[in-house]
Structures are given as structure tokens and as C-alpha cells.
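I wish you would study the pair of lines that follows with an eye to the fold:

===
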Amino acid sequence: MNYIERDDDKLKDECGVFGVIATQRPVARLIHFGLFALQHRGQESAGMAVWDGKDLNVRKGMGLVSDVFDDKNLESLKGSWGVGHVRYSTTGGSLLQNAGPFAVDSNLGFIVVAHNGNVVNADELRNELISRHIRFNSTTDSEVITQVLANAPGATWPEKLKAGASRLRGAFSLAILTNEKLFAIRDPFGIRPLCVGQLTDGEGWVVASETCALDTVGAAHEREVAPGEIIALDETGYQVINHLERWEAPEHKAALCAAELFYIARPDSVIANKSVYMVRENLGRHLAMEHPVEADLVIGVPDSGIPAATGFAEQSGLPYKEGLIKNRYIGRTFIQPDQQMRRRSVQLKLNPLRPMLEGKRVVVVDDSIVRGNTTKGIVHMLRTVGGAKEVHLRISAPPVLHPCVLGIDTGTYEELIGNRLTVDEIREYVDADSLGYLSTGNFAEATGLAWDNICLACFNGRYPIDFKYRPGGAKTVLEINRV
């Protein structure tokens, strides 16, 4: 079976946003550090906009944060208010014109928007704005959001932001810079994370996708932005100024993305008042109870599979060992020059520790199987290079059966191995001795969150929005039923 020749069949991260408003303190380096902490959420481009009370200075570029910013251009970004963005493309191509954040003018002055998520009615909104002679420079929904907010009715920013954001459907966590305040907005279901923190010197406030970014810049975690909240921040503090009304979704009270918990978020972050690391350990414990196996040791697939592997080992009483060594200098955008090198790409990133594995019955814990080619390569490598006697694969999430349309690139139905094959057929394809996925019920229980507070759509197809799906090339195409 030869389905997809993609190097990396993991879920693709989406974006990270970061904003700072400080008291007479340069913020470019704070934003720089914050974006470093959020680099796992997007590696295609990075950017920031900084305001000094007179001029708005914007710098964006393709590549990692370290590729886009250096000492010289950071020094040129003057100002004590600013927002930053790291991007992986879920709408629009990987092009400089699609890099965030986006800045446009409005009748109240400039607005800069850093966006994490995916707005499914973006095409409709874009066409409406084009009919009003508003021009676009990109193909991303983030620019659509920016223009919708800038052109919404309202005599004040709170009025304008509520009017504009109320028209958006889908996932949006926004850090917004204006000439009056820094704003944070989270969609009514809280699909993507967003939090607020205070700089520990008391001289400013921070908005970030994850709490790990607050830790990096020395900010204390104050609170999450609740689903539907619009929060205004200035140098003195923050205030909830409005709430967005929910669109109809009777099965969901909230809809935090499940993938944030099992894969996307950094393990040292706190989301929904839960330690991401502890949630992943607990997923591993439930996995061991649901799919026990006789084996000699447990290993995790670096990096996101390791917490679940330690939980599996603890629950099962098997020793946890480091069996796969990750080459941390092979980036996610590594390009293989030919097909032979593509087939060896797994071993370029991971290498088995043969003295630990040889002749052993090994449990391998990972967070997901999306397309299957990378997992197949890992199992093959553990057998042929590592010398494992048996390889038992355990996955700390249910099978990914449905594409995500809310900010994570899973690919199409045709690309998802869980949609095409049964569990036993997947086991046969990846050549594992056994394969066990965590069930949806045990997944929800392990997170400690209520069923109706999590978006499990990639597992069960129950999205918090209504739409029709049809395959459309490499990307998802949506026909919106309700807007």
C-alpha cells in the first residue's frame, strides 16, 4: 500500500500569537522571546508590529523566528506596545504575503491582528468586502479577519471589534493592537487557547497563545481568555469589555481542540486549568489500562509521545527507557533531494538506541497516526536497526478519522489512514505486532474535561459548526450551511 509520499505525517501545527503592552519599556525583544516559546505552533513565517505612540513598525519574514529577527532589526523596532505571530498555513499558501500579523487602516486608526485558528466563512466575507472595493494582498483568512474588524460599524474600538468578530465563524484567538489599547478576543467556543499574564515587574501585560510564552518573558499567568470574551488591556491592567454570542451548536458548551491536549501545545503549558504534561501522562495511564501488553520496556516517540509513554509505563509496571534519539537539528521543513532520501527521512530525525532495544519486546507510545508513513518507518527502524524482537504500538488518542477545519492541517479524508483502513489493517500496514488506540470515552475521561467542553471532531466528526465537506486537492473545501 503506497498512499502518501509526505515526509511528515504528524498533525501540522497552526499559529501562535503574542502581544505586549508595557509602560515606557521596549517590547520588541519580549515579543521575540515570546515567539521563540511559541515556535512549535508555526515554523513557516514570523512577524511582529511595534508602536511607539507615533509610528507603527512592522517586520515579517519567512522561516523560523531566528531567521527573521536579529539584533539589528530588533533594535529598529521601537515602541512599548506590540503584537507578534508565528505561522503554519492552514489557509493560504506558505508565502511572505500571507505572513502575520496583518495591519490595515480604519476610521479609528490602524489595527494590527495576529490570528490563531481558521475561519470557515472567510471566502464569503472576502467576496463581500471585495464587492465594497476593499483590496486584499494575501490569500489567508487572517487578512479577511483584519479587514472585517477594520471595516465593521462602530464609533469606538469595543463596538467595532464586537460587530466585526460577531460575523466570524470558526476558530479565532486574536491579539489585536490599536492606537488605544491591546485587545484579546477568543471565539465563543474557545477552540484555540489564549491567556493573559502580567509582567512580574508590574510594568505591563501580555497576551499569548500558551502559558509557556508567559513564563519565557517573566510574566505571571493571570487567567485564560474565556470563550467569547473581548478583553481590553493597557499599561494599568485589563478589563472584559464585551462577549460574543454563540452560534448554534447544541452538543457543545465549549470546544477546546483535543489536539491541543495530546499534541499541539507545549507540555509545560497550562490550558483549561490543566497541566498539558499531566494530561498526556494521564492519557498514557488510561491507554495502559485499555490496551495492556506483555513486554519488556516502554519507549516514547519524541517529543510529544514521551509524557504518555511515562504514564503508560507507570500504570503497567513496565520500565520506561529512552529508545529513540531525536536529531534536533533536522528541522520540520527539511527537504529530501530524492525518493531514496525521503524514505530515509525518519532515520535522519530519529535513531534507535540498539543496546536498549535489541532482542526486547518493546511498547512504542505515540500521540497519533495521521497518514501512516512515518509510523511505518519507525516500526521498521526499531526492528532492523534497533533489533527489537516485538514492536507493540500504542496511540494516546483515538484514530483521526475526520479532517480538521478549525486551525490544524490534517489533510483530506483520502490522506487519513484511519479513515481508509480498520485498526487491524493499519497494524498490518505499519508492521506492528499489535496496535491499540485510546478510545474516545477514555480520552475525554483522561483529560478531566467534560465531553461537551472539548472538540473531538477529528475523532467523531461532530464539529461545533455546520458545514459540508468535499475533497478539494490538498486542502479542505467547505460549503457553509449556516453563517
